[in-house]
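Side project, low priority. Logging it here so it doesn't get lost.
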Amino acid sequence: MREVHSHQHAWKNFFQNTAYSVEAYEFVLDTLDFALRKLDKPRHLTAQELLERLREYALKIYGPMAKTLLENWGVKNCQDFGEIVFGLVQYGIISKQDSDSKEDFKVGYDFEEAFQKPFNV
């Protein structure tokens, strides 16, 4: 019982000390599930592959509201996605390869271009 209490305390502490909402973490995990289901065989995703799936899934699920929702959750650029991913790695929710780095998320897309432009008439 003590172990469960300790785990809950760690998660509570984690979310109190992050710039991102719980919804942002759930969105990244949902996107990982979405991305892995699209593959023939499960495998590691690169940062660039994950960023593309995050964009695709956000547009599919949230449409023109995607950018607004992400920003409300604290996600304002691709580096924020990297922070979320590595937070999940830190807590053992997902894994990474030795070659993976937060820096991999710096080379991403502009949020305005990625999330607003598809809906501009």
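Brief comment: The longest helix spans residues 22-37.
Revisit when time allows.
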